[in-house]
Design a protein that fits this description.
single chain, Jelly Rolls, six-stranded mixed β-sheet
Length: 116
């Protein structure tokens, strides 16, 4: 399993990378990663005209898109569509941040898993 990661470098510029989730256990129900710490969960509904200018993430968090995707542009210029069912770990909490824009002219439901 791969997830997207959005992080900032020492100059405050955000970049994407792909992260492989390591499985450490196999059970009769499937393979499991190690247990990761979290501090809370937030449910969010995003309107279909969402178009947020440059901003850093409010906290380190996983964003899990449930039923629609989002286009995120890192400050290095790389744009990715994070589709429904995909996960992005956002860690660009300072610096220029990133752009976020709705796609498909539909409401997006997502879950934030806060890490800080």
């Amino acid at each position: 399993m791969k997830i997207h990661r959005l992080y900032e470098d020492e100059n405050g510029i955000s970049h994407f990378e792909d992260v492989d989730i390591e499985y450490v256990e196999t059970t009769h129900a499937g393979r499991l990663s190690r247990r990761l710490p979290a501090t809370g969960i937030i449910f969010r509904e995003v309107p279909p005209d969402y178009d947020l200018d440059w901003h850093p993430a409010p906290r380190r968090q996983y964003i899990i898109n449930l039923d629609n995707g989002v286009q995120i542009t890192a400050s290095d210029g790389e744009a990715r569509t994070i589709a429904a069912g995909e996960v992005v770990l956002v860690e660009d909490t300072t610096g220029k941040g990133h752009l976020s824009k709705a796609i498909n002219d539909r409401i997006r439901h997502c879950i934030f898993v806060a890490l800080d």
